[in-house]
Amino acid sequence: MSIRTDLAVESVGNITDGITQTYRGKSFRVTDITIHSDKSGRQIGRKKGRYITLEGDGFNRISKDFRSMCIEFAKELSPLISDGSVLVAGLGNSDITPDALGPKAVSQILATRHLKQELKDEDEFLTGLRSVSTVAGGVLGQTGIETAELIRAVAQKTKPSCIIAIDALACSDINRLGKTIQFSDTGISPGSGVQNKRHELSESSLGVPVIAVGIPTVVDMHTIVGSYTHAPVNRSLPNMMVTPRDIDKLIEKASAMLAAGINMALHPQLDFEEIEAIMC
Question: What percentage of residues in the chain have a pLDDT greater than 70?
């Protein structure tokens, strides 16, 4: 049975030809998947590149594990980020709760690009932070502008060394909803998990490396039925995307986790407590 998922860890299965997997982690169960060729990627519907999945037990900000989870996420993400300025893009529709992860997370990212211009030599510490800019431009139905077009225009102006694109994902296992972070160096096609695929954001389309970061917030109903019955699903029957009933709380917690980890990865001179104080 074919499944609809954005998670490479769910697509790989038992396929090993041209694909390597390594495992590690403390606060998370970390699966590091590398697809070595385009041919290997076509077997599972993924582009050649690296996909890192962090699986936890939820992202409760008041949990005693929240600090260690943020630190581990930042540690895993940091090697993928190029030196120099970074553009962080929040993808998705802020008016639809399961799709609001990107805009919600990017609103908590520490933007610093303007500090060098505004402060100049007044504050050496602040002007010494990495140059970071953010954008959350909504979706095509709201603006009439493709997300890729908007981000390309901003990137041409700000000239980042890489782009971090945050988006809500789809998964096939309900146990991964709101409990799994995936990031990759292959870019992203917004909306692909819910069959609303838009223009891709990738190094080939934007001219700079694109790191895609996301957390699954929806699962396909046909996939759920197939997983539980282990029988073919009649695809002619009505389908829908299912999301947890407490999705508003999930988005709040998940966006805080992503923002804290990304902020720490971008500004390693700031510790967790300093980052959290800035975000609050």
Answer: 91
